[in-house]
TrEMBL record:
InterPro entries: NAD(P)-bd_dom_sf (IPR036291), SDR_fam (IPR002347). NCBIfam families: PRK08267.1 (NF006123). It comes from Sphingomonas endophytica. PANTHER family: OXIDOREDUCTASE SADH-RELATED, RETINOL DEHYDROGENASE-RELATED. Belongs to the short-chain dehydrogenases/reductases (SDR) family. This is NAD(P)-dependent dehydrogenase (Short-subunit alcohol dehydrogenase family).
Length: 257
């Protein structure tokens, strides 16, 4: 039986992806800092093929423990690490507190990097294994109002490309998802210095929300396909097109022109 471990499995993209893979016969390990969210997701999946692991991705010792625990129940298999845990922080960069900047970097990139590094022996030991990292449309072109978030997602993109090259000889496939805006709890945080949330900003800019179910199906395709990056959603597709063919227009859009 194939086995996957998904961080951020207590809600949003992580939950939706877990449901898709579980429905197709995979064993699923759910990891998240939110214990209640884990219980809620686990209730949607077969109990005999699901395990839950409360963890903070910023702590390497917790990565070590969770990976060992999951390997114990999966007979040593790790066919997929879905490195998905992340948070958003919006608003003018000059107004974001240093603590908030550190938290975004620590969760979105440091935690993801720890996962890739510490899962490597398990992935290497599982023929045909895959590392799937959640990046973002904000990794296509830096997004004004989401500067630190964009920066971490560009870092995820770079790590994905580098490891795709490094680990090919080991038989490990490395992929990323680049979804546009998903209407999850990540967008509910207030933007510093305003009365708006990130969700309000998306609506005001008349950008589309991509259904989380669409992202989950694209995750399945990414794991079973050959593209390094999988762009998901109309906004992400338009950004990718503009970044390649109309960079000046995209730059003007980010400047609010």
């Amino acid at each position: 039986m194939k086995a996957m471990l998904v961080t951020g499995g207590g809600s949003g993209i992580g939950r939706a992806v877990a449901q898709v893979f579980s429905a197709r016969g995979w064993r699923v390990g759910l990891a998240d800092i939110d214990a209640q969210g884990l219980r809620d997701t686990a209730a949607l999946l077969p109990a005999d093929r699901t395990s839950t692991h409360v963890m903070d991705v910023r702590d390497p010792s917790e990565w070590e423990e969770v990976l060992a625990d999951f390997a114990h129940v999966s007979d040593g298999r790790l066919d997929l690490l879905f490195n998905n845990a992340g948070i958003a922080a919006g608003g003018p960069f000059a107004e974001i507190g240093l603590d908030a900047i550190d938290r975004v970097i620590d969760i979105n990139f440091r935690g993801l990097t720890y996962g890739a590094r510490m899962a490597y022996p398990y992935l290497k030991a599982t023929p045909g294994a895959c590392l799937l990292n959640t990046a973002s449309a904000s990794a296509i072109y830096g997004s004004a109002g989401l500067a630190i978030y964009s920066a971490t997602k560009f870092a995820v993109r770079g790590l994905t490309e580098a490891l795709d090259g490094e680990w090919a000889a080991e038989g490990i496939r490395v992929r990323s998802l680049m979804p546009s805006f998903i209407d999850t709890n990540l967008l509910s945080a207030p933007i510093p210095g305003t009365k708006y949330t990130a969700r309000d900003l998306v609506v005001r800019r008349k950008l589309e929300f991509t259904p989380v179910e669409t992202v989950a199906e694209k995750a399945w395709a990414a794991v079973h396909g050959d593209r390094v990056h999988t762009v998901v959603g109309k906004t992400a597709e338009r950004m990718a097109f503009a970044a390649r063919w109309m960079p000046g227009r995209l730059r003007a859009m980010m400047r609010g022109r």
